[in-house]
Amino acid sequence: MKITRVTEQVSLKRTIDQGTSAQREIVVNILKQVQEQKDEALKRYTAQFDGVELSSLLVTEQEKKRAYELVDADMLSTIREAADNIRDYHERMVEQSWMTTKEDGTILGQKVTPLDAVGVYVPGGLAAYPSSVLMNVIPAQVAGVKRIVMVSPPGKDGALPAGVVVAASELGVKEIYKVGGAQAVGALAYGTETIQSVDKIVGPGNIFVALAKREVYGLVDIDSIAGPSEIVVLADDTAKPNEVAADLLSQAEHDKLASSILVTPSMKLAEAVKEEVERQVESLPRKEIAKPSIDNHGAIYVTGSLEEAIEAVNQLAPEHLEIMTESPLELLGSIRHAGAIFLGRYSSEPVGDYFAGPNHVLPTNGTAKFSSPLSVDSFVKKSSIISYSQQALQKNVSKIAAFARLEGLEAHARAVEERFKK
Question: What does CATH list as the number for 228-369?
């Protein structure tokens, strides 16, 4: 990791991977084929990209039973406890419909309605992600979504990872399909003979999944265009270098494009963390992923003061932010932009990834400046309620008509005036 002194205002924001024109062309073609050929296209692309011929896309009851046999009792208990924590946290977010009345008979309000159907994409490939199942499905259930569909790419054996199937089964997800990539996004957006279309698609994936979500946005809603994972650690001299290094590597092992950054006013800590990262990465099972991530996208920024370090963090607007300082809670008010904020040495980022309860689907690539974590609100829509009485409209008809004519919309003006013509 390179140590850089931040002596002046610099742009630390990462660029978002928009994909190449060739990648977009591939995705557009896949989506077109799925729209036209439906299940046939899904099975063909699954054979081509995942190397497995499937007779059925749906995960069967027998496959679910087999998955439970492969997950030990302790792990099952942990999945259930994590699910309880996540559900408890999200239940506190539920927003109710409301109405208010005025003396003139006006009724105004807001109606909160859950989406009818949601598709959850669970990535495969380099690792299995039961936690992604919990984090995407539970807030949708809490919001009141009736139909939740899960898609995930199968392994070479034609099965999904046991932990993924068990996590979905524990939550009561009935529709679990063995299909991934851009073709899965197409199935959720357009529908096929087997997979009925949904209203919104959530969940992370590779660049082809991200591009496919971008292409179908408008026909359906999406959560976001997620980039590679990222962590920023804001630390002072009280932080322990071995712990900071371990936390930086926890993100580096996700993806060669993942970003792990330390921001600190302490050159002593910076040098110690650099040394620790270089030592710890050598013993990681996923060294072939973590080392390129650290070498190419990792960084250590040394600032002139803690205040400058905080400003650098706000520029980065990281997905995950750990504050490992003497008094982390005192700095919380100064943090304007971060997806999730972890306070103190015992709040390591994996605590939020798996167990604490807050959602781990977070804004990446600096989008925390204007975006929020996945939540119950992501799975509802809101309708405005307006009811004017005769008295209320009569009192305001001339003002409304004048506003309409100011904008050159005579029919709007006449629409309110028509009620009071003699």
Answer: 3.40.50.1980
Question: At residue 191, what are phi and psi to the nearest 5 degrees?
Answer: 85, 150
- 21-222 has which CATH code? 3.40.50.1980
Residue 9: the pLDDT is: 47
Name the active-site residue from 63, 175, 243, 319. 319
SS (H, E, C) 225-288: CCCCCEEEEEECCCCCHHHHHHHHHHHHCCCCCCEEEEEECCHHHHHHHHHHHHHHHCCCCCHH
pLDDT at 15: 56
Pick the more confident residue, 17 or 370: 370
Q: Where are the domains of the chain?
A: 21-222, 228-369, 388-420
Position 422 scores a pLDDT of 81
Alpha-carbon distance of 380 to 410, in angstroms, equals: 36
Residue 14 vs residues 228, 259, 280, 416: alpha-carbon distances, Å: 11, 9, 25, 51
Q: Examine the pLDDT at 206 and tell me if it is beyond 70.
A: yes
Q: Which residues are annotated as a binding site for substrate?
A: 229, 251, 254, 320, 353, 407, 412
What residues form the annotated binding site for NAD(+)? 121, 183, 206
How do strand 221-222 and strand 200-202 relate by DSSP bridges?
Answer: parallel
Instruction: Report pLDDT digits (tens) over 262-316.
Output: 999 999 999 999 999 999 999 999 999 999 999 999 999 999 999 999 999 999 9
Instruction: For residues 48-67, give the mean pLDDT.
Output: 95
Residue stretches of the annotated binding site for Zn(2+)? 251, 254, 353, 412
Proportion of the chain above pLDDT 90, given as a percent: 90
- 320 is annotated as an active-site residue: yes
The one catalytic residue in 297, 320, 337, 360 is 320
Asked if residues 195 and 177 have their Cβ atoms less than 8 Å apart, the reply is: yes
Does the annotation count 53 as an active-site position?
no
Q: Which long-range contacts (CB under 8 A, 24 or more apart) does 68-75 make?
A: 68/162, 68/166, 68/169, 70/162, 71/162, 71/163, 71/166, 75/163
Helix (H, G, I), strand (E, B) or coil at 152: strand
> How high is the mean pLDDT of the chain?
94
